[in-house]
């Protein structure tokens, strides 16, 4: 039996496939949905001096830093965070706290005690929970097992595909398992082909209030493949459409039998979903398809989906297996035929924080709880366990219904988030896995040589925008911050609209993100940034 670990960075391989597979349809076609993708690197171009908004009778304008801060005085902003929030049109909707990362001194706060949805900032809590409990080197393991000996290439018993929760497992990884099995001389089995996905409790979706077709709200369990999404593509052929459902990867494109789609003559809704007999039944409105297009749809039978793809790959390699049967308990005695290990947990978490993958967050959180409790718990019970862990770790109790932040009922205050980020040992764990936040000018260009490094986790839902993390300044003063913007009335209306892109959501998010930039740039100034870059000897360390 050969042990193989992933030789390439996780997620990026499948992400590149998902990007390459995006097909642009007609204007009315269903939106192509990919895994969360990090924004492209921003060109490092020259930029105007650091600026922050000033409220005048004529409105909000930007003025150079030198015009606002006397050179011989301690930097003082002529506007406050309250002024900036009001100018952004977000009055009463923002909780913001910024503190000295070394002393814990709160430097400024606006409505910092009010709990608000953290969205994907929740993943920072999950990252800490997982890394401190499981350790940096923890790996998820997927195996192929036999219940009897191999005689003449044939397993004398059942063949089992056994999941270990790996949130990054893709079709190419299953092909590695198949090849190991073939290299061991296996050509078939006398018994059943079984699949075990009970290492974690199965959840049909992360947040039931989301639209059925959203790929970022998939099922999850102990066996996850391709982020538990299936690739749906369509193209007009004469007066009809050719449609396909497959589990494509960087090198393969196996068709699937556990998800089907039909084209329906209706004006709406665009998608409908029904759970069939171990198969996902989708329909899509003909009027929405245009000429051609594609998107990744969630699967709701994750273990059977993975087994379906494994069986196809095995058949292509010369191994004949019957249709899979799901089992809830592994036999007491088995022989391992092949095995695939994920990347180390730190790498898994780093990519989770960069791409904000919801499935990864839920799997990491539930696996951590299983380790703590010596038993796998459903997602909401696991989130409650993480709540209790955070309370013990940092002295406050957030409200958590999941590990990813997709549930808009999660709640934490900006003050409590900053308290967690400032707790002993937290900076050392989170700073290395947080992604850099580029400071931008009014033209959305990177500010060249900005005198601070910002590492943070973003969070976005409709009418929710969050950002929390660390600022390492060149003056040697380091900051911790949390920003949560939330419009509850608009969010409630957007959920009732059943629209993937509700009116006003993009504008709200844009205002909130610009305000985040303004507040961070303002506090970089107030931290006394000027002159030569100096190394910081504080607890916050940012690797460039």
Could you explain the architecture of this structure?
Belongs to the peptidase S13 family. This is D-alanyl-D-alanine carboxypeptidase / D-alanyl-D-alanine-endopeptidase (Penicillin-binding protein 4). α5 (about 170-185) crosses α6 (about 300-315) and α8 (about 360-375) crosses α9. It contains 13 helices and 23 strands. Mean pLDDT is about 85; it is low at about 1-10, about 20-75 and about 530-544. It folds into three domains: about 5-35 and about 140-340, 3-Layer(bba) Sandwich (D-tyrosyl-trna(Tyr) Deacylase, Chain: A); about 40-115 and about 410-544, no CATH class; about 120-140 and about 345-410, no CATH class. It has a six-stranded mixed β-sheet, with helices on one face. β22 and β23 form a beta hairpin. It has helices at about 10-20, 65-70, 80-85, 120-135, 170-185, 300-315, 345-355, 360-375, 380-395, 415-420, 425-430, 490-495, 505-525, and strands at about 5, 50-55, 60-65, 95-100, 105-110, 140-145, 150, 155, 160, 190, 195, 230-235, 240-245, 260-265, 270-275, 280-285, 290-300, 325, 335-340, 435, 450-460, 465-475, 480-485.
Brief description of this entry?
This is D-alanyl-D-alanine carboxypeptidase / D-alanyl-D-alanine-endopeptidase (Penicillin-binding protein 4). This protein has 13 helices and 23 strands. With 544 residues, it is of the alpha+beta class.
